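Let us begin with a simple case.
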Amino acid sequence: MNGQNNDELIRLPGQHASKLAWRPLSAICRHATIGEFRSIAQYICLTNSKKNQALDNIPSNVTQPELFFWYIPSPTPSQNLIVWLNGGPGCSSLNGLFLENGPYMFSSSDDTLQLNQHSWHLHLGNVVYIDQPIGTGFSFDATPEAQMFSLQEATNTQFLNFLKNFRAVFPETAHLDLYLTGESFAGIYIPMIADAMILDAANDWKLKGIALGNPVLDVSRQMNPVDDGYMVDQVDFLAESGFWGGSSAATEARLKIANITEGCLAVGMDERMQNPDLQCDQAMRFVSDWYQTSHTELGANNTCFNMYHIDKSIPCNNKDASHHLWRQEAATVRYLNAKETKRALNIPNEYPWASCSQVRLAPPSPETPIASTNLIDRLIASNISVLVYEGDRDLVVNYVSIERILGNTTWANGTGFSSPLKPLPSTSHAVNAPAISLSLIQSERGVTYVRVSGGAGHLVPADVPESSIEIMRCLIPVGVLGSTTPTLPVQGSETSAAATTTVPRQEATSTITRTYEFTVIPVVTSVQGEEAVAYIPPERIPSANLMFLSLLRIATTPSAFTVQALPGASAQLLASLNGQYAGLIPTSDNATAPNNYFFWYFPSVNTTSDNLVVWLNGGPGCSSLYGSFSENGPMRIGSNGTLTANPYSWHLQANMLYVEQPVGTGFSADTSSKTYDEKDVGNYFNSFLTNFYEIFNETKSHNLYITGESYAGTYIPYISTTLTNATTQTSSKLKGIFLGNPFMNSNIQGSIASAVGDYDFLNEGGFFSGDAAVAQAPLATLAEKCRTATRAVAATLPYECSVLDGYQDWYARNHVGAFGAGNTCLDWYNMDNEAPCVETGVAGGGDDLTAYLNRADVQAAIHVSAQPFTWVECSKILLNDARNQPASELLDELVSSNVKIVIGQGVRDAVCHYVNVERVLSNSTWGGQKGFRDQPSAAAAWTVQGVKAGSVVRDRGISYVRILGSGHMIPTDQPLSGFGLLAELLYGDANAANAVIPAVPILPTPSTRSGVSKPVATTTKSSSGLRQVQGFACALALALLINC
């Protein structure tokens, strides 16, 4: 292997090594022998096209854009090099490796890796899996200017440069016949890559063919829910596939979908987008609703429609850990994010792997549709064969759409196929591929199309693995199936059963014996002479040889959670508190529930308080401990780990409870990796709170208030309606909620929808004055174009309709500022601040907090159940909320339940700015009327201790307060105003007689700002920043349809 032997690795989870910077070709790839084949994983750097730097002249000390690959050479000599790409855009090809056609698969009972008997490397040739484009999976770009790129750059420049370097590293592959294969959005990638190879006369790529599985060939027709073709194709597919059956409910649902489609086809595209009464983009939601009420195989109201395979139901709440689809996907995510796996790959532990990432690609031009069918003719003319295969149970990319697109595609002097589909011939070596005898084929003029039956959905290699190999033989010439297959061990019962041991331990800080259950699983399990590697969760590695899964049994008294000593806190500080409690409480009424919420409870020093105030940060996935240490908790963290008192702590006025939720946030580890929605968030919190009350009995009689900021503006209404509708002891306790700078409605605040509001916010704030006047006209034009833009159209417009991105770009290019030319950006979190463009931390010392909470002595003091635990301020959590209504629509129900609502809005915040928040409220109905009767712009002055701190409008149970001088985090930017907002919630007035007054000087009156002397921000702050919130809203809208 040309100089690679010195880098051979021992057998470890993941097994393969990498470096983040350019390395000499002789050492760029490391490999290990596993079973009867080798697998090699590594990064290969790319040419930085923006700097026109030659491939052979990359300095060794410069980090360059890189693509991550995993290469699986065939165990026997093969003339074929097969590239596999997943789609998305932004979905990692390691999904294909672990879930479809790679050599590894997870066992049905645990996360042990086994050999996949149907791996393509055993039957078809050498296979390489590539995370592309940049930003996908483990591939990333360290150069900030390359964070957004065109489709051509992603497919042509990036991939071809990668493959050139790959061949330099593996010169034995340079003479191999090349086949590009993949699925879903790879139907766009692959033809563009192939076309670029044709046009590159300087290199002989030896490309022989491409295979496109369930491919996106025309983005508008296949991914735009209001496109004519999209609507008609889905209706016809559901009818032709026999999906509906003959029940009266099915007939009613089918007619409803047909009527919606007919109504939408009768009007133009603009009206479809603008008229919500037409429900043009809701057709599949109605299908899902009907399916859930009509099917019970996974339980009543828990059997949902699977768009990726219409014959295989999925659990609605994704809580069924035994369900094959979710278990396999979750195992992949856990495995690739495990510390042991990343250590073996030399990937930094803080760099996460996601199944699919948000990758922004610009189309060739605004006028050019994103489609690949126009390239097929040139491929055929260049003697490159084309194979398209389509699982006939897939709705996401359905066969009706594919066959109609191909029927209108011209290649080799003809349009479409001239002959009908016919049965695919079965050969003697396909006896174990039952789908073959049911599949249909067309093959003319260099293009072959196979409609795959026998249980094939979106993931054909996973659904019908033997058939997928046989179908690939229509393209790739190899020997008889099985002729190159080595003898493999039979998988199944060879792994030893995990032993369960109960280990009682006496806590040093408690008189109560707490019992833990440990599931002990060997890391390396013997598999008939081979080795399979068990998954080690990154947060659960107490030793190198065992995995411990601790299931906390609920303690019955608060003493088990007492924080008696806290590193960095002086005795005087600890004595000033009225006690503190921390630990994990299950999110279920089952005492041994695997998912727990971490909490930190500070009883009020105001011992007469009968109020329990919960604080939640947003994200989704951002820890509420940030709120405690950086906003309104009793302690502040210093750079040296020293804790000091916060004179504006909310615990001076009420009992404060900080909760890390939903599962997967902070110390609240998700041991099941299930996906869930906001309704699940509400149910989990209700169960947690019920358990909390059982431990802290005195709080049962307290009035409950739930507070938070940013994306908590979505969490809290859903949690609150769950509590008010509950039949448990939590139902009558909720008295009010506070939403700080809230994200409540993606239809107004999310991504493209926010463009006009973002422009108005900048305009009203005076950000186009002075030298910024030159930026106003182009951004006004952009905002107007984005007003009615579809996602596909937005992708063709500047900054993809992000007006704030446009202003940020202008600002960085025209201001030197405190951080230097080209690195002085706007701080979206507080418009009175600047920030370095490359800043990724959160204002208020997020790095200090992370270092502190990852100390072993701190984790021991606050009863983190398994140590060491890697705490991060914000985790990547995607809630499956496509079927849920915006949180703003729940306000009326809460007001009707006599729940008081206070909304505080910092006017210097661009993340969730006041223009869009007020538009959300003006479009919301509560108390029998829409919006406020008095406009917030004309509201009365709002004072705290005699100082004007903002303005307030109180109407029909909702109080809306604009806070002067504050950005996204009100308790941080204007702590006295934050303290006043708590009094507004508890007592109806910031200056109520029974409100506690902090014993600190009154803050000066916030100054209003004009011009752009110090505007702000696109730092990717992790406390629910605009990029994270908008990225979530965008991903959410597409999650059920195009997460390919």
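The second case is a distinct protein. As before, the sequence precedes its structure tokens.
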Amino acid sequence: MSDQDDDNDSVDEQHEAFTESLSSKLISDDRSPTCMLSQSQLFAVIENSITAQPIVDFFYNEAAAKQRRDEARLVVTKLNRVKSRRLFASLLSLLRKVVEDESYQHHEQDEEVDEAEITRSLQFLRICADLLASHLDSLKKNKPSVIDEAFEMATLLHELLFPLHQSPSKYAAATSSSIFSLCEKWWHLNLEDREQLVTQLIPLLLLSSLDEHATKSDVKRLYSTREALDLLDFGDPSIASLEKQLLRTISHPLFLQCKEGKRFLSHLFTVDAGFISRLHAAVRVQIPYAKKSILNAYADIYWHAWKSCSSSDHEEIRVSLEENAIQDLTFHVIHTANPTISKNCRMVLDRFLLYKKDPEVESMLYRMYGPLLWRSIIASNARVRLQAATVLADTFPLRDLKSNVGYNAVVTKTVESVLKLMRDEVPNVRVAGSVCAAKILGGFWVAIPSKDIRILLNVCCVVGDAIIIGSFVLASLLHNVSQRVNDTNAKRKIEIIAKHASDTTSSAVRATAIQTITYLLQEEKTHAVLRPLLPSLGNMIHDKTEKVRLSVVKMLLVVKKLKGIKYYHVVPAKHLLARLAEEARGKNNPTGPVAKALTELLSNSFFPTGSKTTTADVIGRTFRLLQDNPDAALTFYRNASTQLSVHSIVKLISALMKCLCFLIVEEKKNGKEDVSSLELSHVVEEEKGFFYSGEGENEIGVVMMATIAESISVLWESIEGDLKTTENEHIHELLLEAFSGNIVTEIFCHFENKVGDSSNESTHWNACFRALVAILNCAGKMDKNNFEGLRAHIFAELDKSWDSPPEQRSKANFTPYVSLLCAWGMAEELAKCLALSISNYFAGGRNKQPLKKKARGKNAHSSFPLLHIDVCLNILGRTLHGAYPSVVVARESILECKEGIDAIVVALQKAEEVAVGILRPIDSPPLNADEELIKNIGKCVECHGRIHLHSIENDCSMTLPAGAMVLIDWVSEFIVPALIKLISQDNTLRDLDISGISGVDSPMSSPVSASVPRRRSSRCSSFARISLRLSEATLPEGGSFNIYQEHSKFTSTIAAAVSCIRSVMLIFAEWLSICRVCDISIRSYPVKWCEVLKGSNETVRKALLPIFCRVAILCLMNGRDSAVLDEVLTCVQNADLITAEEQILSSFTTSLVSSQDEETCKVAIASIIRAICSNNQKCELNGDEPEIPSSILGRILIPLLRDDRGSLMVAQHLIGDTRDNVMIAKLLEEVATHAPKTEALNKILKRWANDHATVKDGTAVAVPGAFDHNAETDFST
């Protein structure tokens, strides 16, 4: 056995002896384990311990160990200096041994690790740190010098922080935390040599605060020791790793979210002048994409950093901060090309602008912005000028307090700069200039001289750059001098208003002008000046741009709150109502921001509130609004829920319902009808004296009733969602009471009888139909079980359609019935009824009314009568085609019924089977087909395709649905070949007239449709993007279709084929116009179908040419694909077209001229010229002389040549074509003959003439007209 082992054994024996003696001493002292620890016991444990183990056992391994540690810390705080030295001297010797032996950490060379020994050492280190910390607590009051033993122990413990940080032991973290607390206390007590106890503390606190599990308390601990950073030498390369960690704090969310973290970062900017540039570079990386909260944090950091170093003691830091950080931000505010970066940098500097009235801040802003701002206002880059305008408003007045330049000189210079901005040629810069002028005037109205105010207002108060008041008038108002305006200035004012009020160069400038006035109205002292100007802005409420209109309404809302200015003096009430009505028309949004703002403006006028307001007052104003402008009233009530409570709107609905009952009863009484049995009369009797009674003709009363019904419907619709909440259940019950009993059914029957009266005029009929739709919309919001009579009445009306004339049956609109039934949840039954009726027709029923109706039971469709085919296709077509909101909802309901929609698809496919039977080969007997059957086949094919289109979930789908592809394949593989074969064998067709399939007067003769709006879901759209109606999809009514008067056996088969092709092509065009994208393989189908145009005469071409032109344009617009157009031109280039066909092709080229897409025009022009050149080559091979003006393709080109833009694009294409100079010269000659004489076109023609010459009889001659340099040309530029 070695000597070291003997020493270890002796130490163990001594430890056992000490433990026994200590236990006996405690027993002899007669103290229980829970008794207070005495000083003698503490000294006995520590002084008698040769190793750390007895101390650790005493504080950790015995009963009540935690309490004993607390008591020991309390005992240490009671020790005097002598006893403290005695205590820590004993601990110091043991601590040195633990540190020397490194028994607190693992060693790589040790094969076996004594975890117990490591744990005892770590616990001993923690005891030493805790007792030292308690000793420091006793120094807070007296603050004597620290004893040497305590400092040496603290130094030893501090040097262990890095090793403990890397230790894998679970006790190392607790020991490190105790040493952290010790070092922090030493630093906070400002004890001597405290800088020696932070060299390892600061890096470790920094790492803990950057850890992914860090909390705000970690950041606060680091912030509390921030002054220790001042001791670091940032020029020393040894702290490079610490610098990297400090730079990480700049973008760490924890530092940017808490107050202490931001203050710590502010302090970082003040520790070293050379470190500022690196810190700012780290901030710059974050600014472009930072959120507003992060930018505000950086603003606080820069502001507090600058404030803390503004004293003379930190001059070097301040200069470095301004030059390396703030100056860079100010530069990017003005000169960056990205507006987002400019805005974000401006937000970072926002704190300085808030305190710009501080002399020190004002001087700093001048030092930063002065060298940049004034030059940037006149910079050549518009973006720089725009951003400089914003800075000019934020920094005004930008001046040097140390110079002799006076305040008035600064104002004068600023006014001159603002005028330059407001008269800039770029609209956005003018907008920025107007905003700048508004901020300056609004913030410094009193401090700015009157002449400068006058100068700014002369340009600032504009209508799209329009000066709206003369300077002399403003000067008079400003000086409150009552004097007459001389004639010169009055004329100047009129001239300026007349000249600039119609300026349409920029809607943003017009909107900003209104916003400028609105901003100035917030300053009370501006009212005297602006009051006479406001009426000049009134007409802008009808501006074509929504942003401008909204700015005007917002200005009126501000004026409404002012005393002495009435908003209806600025814009008359009639104009406000007209604008409110117009917001519901066209592309405007009836629930958009302008409509809502107008509703807020007029809410007190048409729905007064207050304790003295009665229901009669509200009804009176309501009827006045309904009479003055019914359309405005509907828009107002559509947005009333934004201003009124649900209870108020329900009360209004109930009152309007009673008024409607009163008007109906009065009308019946005037017509000598008995009303005693009506429930309406009982409502009137109960509320006698309440109702409004108007005077006028009967027709006016019907229009008023229709408007009341629509108002009830839109009011209910506006609060429909709110009524479903629990808190509004009792209000919903009050609303249902107003519609209880047979009231709704009696009102519906009243208006339905009027609709059925064909003797009524159109206005009267339309009003009744509007009322019907509104009442059914209200009924759809209630339980269907409450309207058994109404439901039975609807079924009876559908059944009566069998007895109606065919024309009336086809034109009847059953969509209100459909919408109501779907709202009641009967979409499935309706779909199955339609499917059964269509199947019955194509199965041989042929519109024969069943002798016995099916009993109404619980089956899916038994409650519906069997419908006429015209009614079925009418309902199905209008539902799939319509865009009215209630129709859209009904369509959604039907499409969601998978079983019902599948049944409809199966029924519609029977029409295709019948078409196949009609188009059998010639040797087979064809089916009997009359005009009505062919029409219905076409309608069914179209409805079938529309159902598949509505199944598209993604607007950008490049492939058609599988069902639609089946239809296209069916046409491609069967219908088109059959039609081509029939045309080739049917010579009598040349003498027939089937123009009724698509005549020149048909809407499909024009291949252009309205622009297609983007949608989110194809199901919610009507897919009605072209003007072809369902009833016009195949054959026309009446005698225009006389093909059956001929003797050809192929007449009905050809008509059926044309009808099917037209219907499927229509669906294809609808899909292209909605989805805007198309796979090239799908676009190849119409190219193949163009074969039907070859060899056919004008009858078939006139029927199919419009839809082919429509598809050609859509392919050009969506994919720049001219394949369809090339094939169409090839098919018609040698045909003898009649006038109607030439008109169709001319409308095609006219649509190209009107198109705003130049690329589409260029591709189409290239296709036409390519076809002309190809035809010319064929003529030369045949020995014929091509005549461009008289040819079909030449006549197609003429409308393009007669347009300025079209002729210019044709000429540009021709001069770049190198295929055939002779042909190009002839075409250019046509351009010179037909095109308007413009300077740009003449330059192109002359340039081509200089480079080429035409050959005629072997002699080179110039092209006449435009190619003659001496020719006198009247240019119109």
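Residues 35 and 1090 are 109 Å apart (CA to CA). The chain has a mean pLDDT of 75.
Keep these points in mind for the review questions at the end of the chapter.
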